[in-house]
Specification:
Elements (H helix, E strand, L loop, with lengths): L20 E8 L3 H10 L8 E5 L8 E11 L4 E7 L4 H12 L2 E8 L3 H10 L8 E8 L4 E10 L9 E7 L2 H4 L11 E11 L2 H12 L3 E4 L2 E5 L4 E6 H7 L10 E9 L2 H10 L4 E4 L2 E4 L17 E2 L2 E7 L28 E7 L6 H7 L5
Parallel strand pairs: 1-4, 5-8, 9-12
Antiparallel strand pairs: 1-5, 2-3, 3-4, 6-7, 7-8, 9-13, 10-11, 11-12, 13-17, 14-15, 15-16, 17-18
């Protein structure tokens, strides 16, 4: 392993040529209404709920996949809530993931040619499923339309971290409509995903093969840098030391992700509007909202904001860490009754103003 370098990231929605982007992540949930409410309270403006399907090979009407989603679309990437809509094999896989824990179970990487990626995965020794054409209805401002995707998936268990897949977007303008890109919290893009694993070397080598990008060593563990976004792999002990309030339910565990935000003031106002009061603590803006949930559920969203280009870390457990590497503090969040956790987060950053573009990725990285 070598020390991670700092590649210059692509600044566009979809990849070109051989590029690969971190495209979206998905929270698996049982209650889409509660999940949508949680997104809105955290300052997101989600797109309408939709039910997913795929074309009938025989030419009949679209066949339901058994899942539906609610998305929060960004200028770069998106996050989604994924839920069971009917009883199908794919929906039963969602049920199996929820039995492990409710929360993040899907990471999708975008490429220009999913068929070529599918062939590469198979040639690289991954057990692959047939290439899938998927679609979901979507309304534009002038008419009804369809969002279409081609997805390369591996067999269950091949990537034990979750539903790790590669896709090609066929309808960029239907998916990323300008009216859905603005959020009260000022989030602008998906940056990174952090996964706690039992075997760093094995996981890093496998993700390197899956993405076609090298895994490198950094202070937190291993990282796979893409043309846009990054996969950070770390041990359970490292995650516990960094975020001691997080209860890791099992390994592997997709525990944290990063979203860029445009303005701390805007984000603070959105938090207050959602019932999360914010206070300053040095370079951090911390919410001091309602008490933690009681009963079956874990605490809900919790956020810590730092001036500059900020990252929103959303996890399936509780905790945040001072971006300066200093003391750690628990923060109360909010939840809906005693529901399962839906979003947990910490937002922080380092300033980018004096950092050359080529070096920014390494200097501003949360994980070192």
């Amino acid at each position: 392993m070598t020390q991670a370098s700092a590649p210059s990231e692509a600044d566009r929605q979809l990849p070109r040529g051989e590029e690969i982007f971190l495209d979206h992540l998905a929270h698996f949930v049982r209650d889409p209404q509660a999940a949508g409410d949680a997104l809105r309270r955290a300052g997101f403006a989600p797109a309408p709920l939709s039910i997913q399907s795929h074309p009938d090979p025989a030419g009949g009407p679209p066949v339901l996949t058994g899942t539906g989603n609610i998305t929060a679309m960004f200028a770069r990437g998106y996050i989604e809530i994924l839920f069971k809509a009917s009883d199908t094999p794919l929906a039963r896989e969602l049920d199996a993931a929820l039995a492990r824990y409710p929360g993040l179970h899907l990471a999708a990487f975008a490429v220009a040619d999913a068929a070529a990626a599918h062939a590469r995965l198979g040639a690289g020794g991954f057990r692959v499923r047939p290439l899938v054409e998927m679609q979901r209805p979507v309304d534009t401002e002038s008419c009804s339309g369809t969002a279409r995707f081609t997805i390369a998936r591996v067999e269950p268990g091949v990537m034990p971290e979750g539903r790790i897949q590669i896709l090609t977007h066929r309808t960029e303008h239907a998916v990323w409509q300008p009216r859905w890109l603005a959020h009260p919290n000022g989030v602008t893009g998906l940056a990174d995903v952090l996964i706690a694993v039992a075997d760093l070397d094995e996981s890093a080598q496998r993700f390197a093969r899956f993405t076609g990008r090298p895994a490198t060593a950094n202070a937190a563990g291993r990282t796979v840098a893409l043309e846009r976004g990054r996969v950070q792999l770390m041990s359970a002990d490292a995650l516990a030391a960094m975020l001691p309030e997080i209860k890791i339910p099992t390994l592997p565990f997709i525990g944290v992700y990063a979203l860029t935000v445009a303005s701390l003031d805007t984000a603070a106002g959105a938090l207050r509007a959602g019932g999360l009061a914010a206070r300053r603590d040095g370079p951090l803006l911390l919410p001091s909202g309602p008490p933690r949930c009681r009963g079956e559920g874990e605490p809900g969203p919790l956020l810590a904001l730092r001036a500059g280009r900020s990252y929103l870390y959303s996890t399936t457990a509780v905790g945040w860490v001072d971006a300066r590497g200093g003391g750690r503090k628990p923060i109360d969040g909010f939840c809906r009754g005693a529901a399962q956790p839906i979003l947990h987060a910490g937002i922080f950053s380092c300033s980018r103003s004096s950092i050359p573009r080529r070096a920014r990725r390494g200097r501003c990285s949360r994980w070192g």
